[in-house]
Amino acid sequence: MVRDVNVRYMDALLKRNPGLIDAAVKLHQSGQIPPNTYLLDLDAHRRNAREIAKEAKKNKLSLYYMSKQVGRNPLIVKGVLGEGFRGVVAVEVQCAKMLHRYGLRIAHVGHLVQPPVDDIDYVLGMDPEVWTVYSVDNARLLSKKAEKLGKRQDVLVQPVGKKDLFFDTMSGGIPEESLVEEVRKITKLPGVNVVGTTSFPCLLFNLATGKVEPIPNFHTAVRGAKTLERELGIEVTQVNVPGTNHAANMKTIAENGGTHAEPGNGVSGTNTEHAFDKHAPEIPAFAYVTEVSHRLKERLFTQGGGMSYSGGGWGLFPDGKLWVGGTDIAMEALVGSTAKQAMSNRLKAKYPGMDPFNYNLTLYPGTREFSAGDTAVFGFCTLQIFVTRAWHAVVEGIEENRPRLLGIFDQGDNLVDRHGHVQGEKAVRNLLEKI
């Protein structure tokens, strides 16, 4: 099952959003977008956000948007927030800075990365709704800065249970057995106000059952919130349970005690479950576009730079251990100089896995011949543009069969022309006013 995850995502892209493939080939062949570009469908992102927001409202949940997966693209963020999301979750301070300069609402900071000490004042000026602190030390720093600014910042804490599952570089929080003692210290700080709990990941796709399910972290966050209410009299207003959030599991989140979710890949239709569920309300909303570079014997190479290790998906193995997509993931690309030609040339590709360079991506054409400059369109689940070297471009009008390129962005979320020349923040704000 694991090996097929990206093949099935390509099936979904072909069947549910073929117009995006058509636009990708035309925009690349006409020279409007460069190779190594993620093409983001604004209308599809809005559509998906509406579906998630509808289910969230039905289940009395609030939503923050995790934008790192789409490279924190401001046009996509503006579109998503307009469909009922309260604001953006900034997984690291770069997310907050890149979007705040364009006037976009920053709602949750500190999860998964604590803002650097010298950035606390600046981030406080963004008036985030909540701020996750991992320790009393972090809370004390925040409190001192907030007090000087005459603020009292609402904060979340992350209780850590003995059976919780964390990715190695995404760990932090307060051991559950010390939660009451440590949070009692935080409640005495004048510049912060504890309002709830969070963790990550809280839900994952189970490869055995084929469903997204709560994992121990979810239950620890809920249990921790109840403990804080009971032992410290804290009025808990938020139990934030990010991870694999999309329309199909809003009900599950509510039934298990969550109050807030943070869809990211769910809005792009690229959570692992989307590779398997043919009837998911979300549709594929992105394609990776590049071009044929050269051939060496039985292998065809395309321009690379846009792949990330997590491109194969996240989930749980049947034995309960974490699965992070890697080199055993199947991948495919559509290759040709026209959309019709590309859709008839579906080639197997090698997923680069842990290779951080991925200068060239490998395809296996068999006896088929291709020319340098032919377009290659990749589709896969679990998008992570922010850790790649790719451009990201936004297109609208695909639903009306009138695709229009709105802009190309670099890794710093700067609007650029086809050759990478920065167009300035005013140009981005002018685009945002039209969305």
Largest sheet: 8 strands, parallel
The radius of gyration computed from the alpha-carbon positions, rounded to a whole number of angstroms, is 22 Å
Q: What is the approximate shape?
A: globular
CATH C-level category of the largest domain: Mainly Beta
| Sheet with the most strands: spatial strand order | 12-9-6-5-4-3-2-13
The total count of helices amounts to: 13
Mean pLDDT: 94
Report low-confidence residues grouped into runs of 5 or more: none
**CA(first)-CA(last) distance:** 40 Å
Helix content: 25-40%
> What is the strand content?
15-25%
Which structural category fits the helices and strands? alpha/beta
**How many beta-strand elements?**
24
Assigned CATH architecture of the largest domain: Beta Barrel
Please tell me the total number of domains: 2
Look up the CATH topology of the largest domain: Lyase, Ornithine Decarboxylase, Chain A, domain 1
What do you see in this structure?
This protein is an alpha/beta fold and 435 residues long. It has 2 domains: 2-41 and 276-433, Beta Barrel (Lyase, Ornithine Decarboxylase, Chain A, domain 1), CATH 2.40.37; 86-262, TIM Barrel. It is built from 13 helices and 24 strands. The chain has helices spanning 5-16, 18-29, 42-58, 74-81, 93-100, 120-124, 136-148, 179-187, 216-232, 250-255, 265-268, 339-344, 425-433, and strands at 37-41, 62-66, 87-90, 106-109, 130-133, 153-157, 159-160, 174-175, 192-198, 203-206, 211-214, 238-240, 260-261, 286-296, 299-303, 314-316, 322-324, 330-336, 346-350, 360-364, 375-378, 391-396, 404-409, 415-416. The strands form 5 sheets. It has an 8-stranded parallel beta sheet with strand order 12-9-6-5-4-3-2-13. Strand 4 (106-109), helix 6 (120-124) and strand 5 form a beta-alpha-beta unit. The two termini are 40 Å apart. The relative contact order is 0.19. The mean pLDDT is 94.
